[in-house]
Design goal:
The protein is mainly alpha-helical. 69% of the residues lie in helices and 3% in strands. It has five helices and two strands; from the N terminus they run αβααβαα. It has helices at residues 2-31, 42-62, 69-93, 121-135, 140-168; strands at 35-37, 101-103. The protein has a two-stranded antiparallel sheet with strand order 1-2. The longest helix is centred in the first third of the chain and has 30 residues, at 2-31. It is elongated, with a radius of gyration of 17 Å.
């Protein structure tokens, strides 16, 4: 249980690094005339993602969940892969990446990195992590609850981003 607790705490530190990056990027975006969209769903998203980490720890310790190697190791690989994909998205978008929907007008859409294949690759990372991180230590309840609560939130978020990006991106030639 201790190694899993350390893993979840490391993910929490990673989330703090994301927030620092997002704050710096938001300042850059605002200096370049950005507008923010979808502020209403942001607190729900923060609460849900915080709940994922808290649920992982609570279910492990209070539910006395075992580590099952046949499940845990593959889920660890997926959880780490999700982190890699998330940071690939962050580095590809550079100062345009944010945890909020903040769009600088008249910048072309990014089509490099994982955006060559998917419009919203970071949300693939969120979905995979939401399932895999809890299942590293057989936290079925947390994985199920997060996934079911996250699906409508992601639908709202993707819709919001698509509207924001459609209004901010320059017209195709």
């Amino acid at each position: 249980m201790i190694p899993y607790t350390v893993l979840v705490l490391l993910v929490a530190v990673e989330r703090l690094a994301e927030l620092v990056t997002a704050r710096r990027n938001a300042a850059w975006s605002r200096r370049h005339g950005a507008a923010e969209y979808g502020q209403g769903h942001y607190p729900v998203m923060v609460a849900l993602h915080t709940g994922l980490l808290a649920g992982c720890l609570a279910e492990t310790w209070l539910g006395d969940r075992p580590f099952l190697p046949a499940l845990g190791w593959p889920m660890l690989v997926l959880a780490l892969g999700a982190q890699g994909l998330r940071w690939w998205c962050i580095t590809t978008l550079g100062p345009r990446w944010n945890t909020r929907v903040i769009v600088v007008p008249d910048l072309p859409l990014v089509t490099a990195g994982p955006y060559r294949w998917l419009s919203h690759p970071n949300y693939v990372a969120v979905i995979v992590e939401g399932l895999a991180l809890p299942l590293v230590h057989t936290n079925w309840l947390t994985a199920t609850a997060f996934t079911l609560l996250n699906l409508p939130l992601l639908a709202t978020r993707v819709r919001c981003e698509n509207i924001a990006l459609a209004g901010a991106a320059p017209a195709a030639p």
